[in-house]
Amino acid sequence: HTFKCLDVIYTSNVQIAEEEFEKLRHYLKKISTLVEKVDRNVELVKKVKEEKLREIRAIAESAIEGLERQVGEKLQKLQGHKFALLAEIQDIEKSLRLMEAEVATSSRSAFLAKKSKIFKECNKIRMNPIKDFKQIRVPVSLKIEIPTIYETGIFVIENFSSFDDNKMAYSNEFSDNFGHIWRIMVWCVISEDQLGIYLELVDGNPCWMECRFQLIHPEPKKIIHKKIKQFFDGGSQKDWGFRDFVTLGTILDDNYLKEDDSLELLYHIRPCPAAAASVAAGCSGVSE
Known about the structure:
288 residues; alpha+beta; Apoptosis, Tumor Necrosis Factor Receptor Associated Protein 2, Chain A; five-stranded antiparallel sheet; four-stranded antiparallel sheet; rod-shaped
């Protein structure tokens, strides 16, 4: 009767062990499914990457580099989750193999002596919560980092030879994409042999702006260009530029003046980060 009782207890506990092992297999399946979802997340990020790359092929290399950086960060995060899950799978599989081998090689009495420990280990593994996929997935979206577009135009300064000392001429007002109203001011200071060029904020919120001026010349090497990055507040600092952009003698001697007595000034303006706080002036006589 004792052997029969032992046989029944053994069989019952082996069945319980198999049930526990089956629960572990189900647990592993859930983790494997999570890995598959991570892989799909990776595929979707790459797919979005390819779609975005097609969209930005005509855009500057800096935009592509920004996209690659975003993708790298997302994939690195996903790979980190995947490697952690795979490591967990390996650990559980190892524990499962050891416990199965221990049951298979143990005598009845030895198994019964170990059963509590085995069941406790199975339960301990299952008690470790599986992460929700929502906690580890990354957004399947990417931004194309496109530099702010310049507002570009040409200010034709007419009847230049008739300018008196301290004469000021203004371009037509124009707007940028952020609702600011601007105009270009040219200041002729004959007594100092200087032509000054300025950008003026006519209306709009204070802002940092980058402005590039180019005095056009038929010979590209003689194009004069200078650039500023400045803060415009619309009040005391509503205009910035160059008091000594070019000498009047240079304009007359080097044929910048057109046959119709006009100068052509090309301008490019765009908002810039506040970090660009210093004035940046290029060198005259060199084309961009």
